[in-house]
Task: inverse folding
């Protein structure tokens, strides 16, 4: 029986690294082992720090190896359970505990999740443009780098954060039709509409695409109402990729059970960590839903998601931002050991734990910078979705 490894402290680092904030969480133990996790609630990091401080009060002194039991206590031992803030905090802690347990046992995290299905992780990359004509050229550059799955973004957001959904539909469809023609049939093409459309607008958009152009349509509408997705599902045969905002297995329930989507955009840093992600993965496998994890954060998130992707059979592609220009959030000064692409795939690390190193001293010197996502408006002044 493995001796208990007691939690002695939990530290949060909400810091600006490169072009964005990251919320990194370190769990310390009495055996000198520590683990790192990351929270994914971008733009609301301070709220998550508060939740972590509450959890720390009763986690100190507990056995860090009892990951599943700790998850249940974090989720169930409060009246107002769940929600995106609390689940983002649970996610970071859960990932850090997996890092600790892997190091304690001398095994990579994927071994804790059932073992390795694959030796490398296929990825998809994004054009990085706001849907303009340069996106096709960027897609050709990505193709030359070895990417055979590429994601686009819609046309229409201007420098004043003005966005008219209806005006976006036709030019974006033309862009994608052109991309398919120039890139050929062998490339997987998708677009992230970032839930900016209504059901009617999304149906109109799909109707303007040539048949077979899109392999996935990501987040065409908001997810609060599964019935809206059920309605849209009857209007198009384009596969849907949704779920990056979901914060629990229960939020996935109607989508998986009713066959409303084909790709889960699960985010291990928002959904409840690796513990919750593995439950959703098995459930998805039973319904032939593939996993296409959301991965827009930093190297800790990427490392955790690589281990998750290695350990599940129903995996498609992992999002990577590594080919994007001048992001700076994977700076080696902060993360001296981190996942690196080899061509268009991530090798799976066999090092104990997550297989990363974090320069805590460098993080401690970084400040936090408040950031707001764009507040998009239509021409009439009304607010619309970002």
Result:
């Amino acid at each position: 029986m493995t001796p208990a490894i007691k939690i002695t402290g939990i530290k949060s680092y909400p810091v600006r690294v490169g072009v964005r904030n990251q919320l990194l969480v370190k769990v310390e133990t009495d055996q000198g082992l520590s683990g790192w996790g990351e929270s994914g609630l971008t733009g609301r990091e301070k709220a998550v720090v508060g939740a972590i401080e509450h959890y720390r009060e009763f986690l100190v002194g507990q056995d860090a190896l009892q990951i599943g039991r700790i998850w249940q206590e974090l989720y169930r031992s409060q009246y107002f359970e769940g929600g995106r803030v609390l689940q983002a905090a649970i996610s970071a802690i859960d990932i850090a505990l997996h890092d600790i347990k892997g190091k304690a046992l001398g095994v990579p995290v994927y071994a804790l999740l059932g073992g390795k299905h694959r030796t490398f992780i296929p990825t998809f990359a994004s054009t990085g443009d706001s849907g303009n004509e340069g996106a096709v050229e960027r897609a050709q550059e990505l193709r030359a780098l070895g990417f055979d799955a590429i994601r686009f973004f819609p046309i229409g957001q201007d420098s004043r954060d003005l966005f008219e959904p209806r005006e976006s539909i036709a030019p974006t469809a033309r862009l994608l039709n052109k991309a398919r023609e120039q890139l050929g049939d062998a490339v997987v093409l998708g677009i992230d509409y970032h839930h900016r459309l209504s059901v009617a607008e999304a149906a109109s958009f799909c109707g303007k695409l040539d048949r077979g152009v899109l392999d996935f349509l990501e987040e065409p509408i908001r997810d609060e109402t599964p019935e809206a997705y059920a309605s849209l599902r009857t209007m198009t045969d384009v596969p849907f990729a949704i779920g990056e905002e979901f914060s629990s297995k229960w939020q996935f329930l109607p989508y998986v059970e009713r066959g409303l989507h084909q790709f889960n955009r699960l985010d291990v840093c928002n959904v409840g960590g690796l513990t919750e992600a593995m439950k959703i993965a098995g459930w998805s496998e039973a319904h032939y839903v593939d996993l296409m994890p959301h991965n827009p954060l930093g190297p800790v998130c990427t490392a955790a998601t690589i281990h998750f992707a290695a350990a599940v059979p129903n995996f498609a592609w992992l999002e990577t931002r590594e080919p994007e220009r001048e992001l700076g959030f994977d700076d080696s000064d902060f993360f001296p050991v981190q996942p690196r692409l080899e061509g268009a795939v991530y090798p799976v690390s066999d090092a104990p734990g997550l297989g990363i190193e974090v320069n805590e001293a460098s993080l401690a010197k970084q400040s936090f910078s408040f950031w707001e996502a764009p507040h998009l408006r239509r021409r009439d002044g009304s607010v619309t979705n970002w």
In short: The longest helix spans residues 84-105.
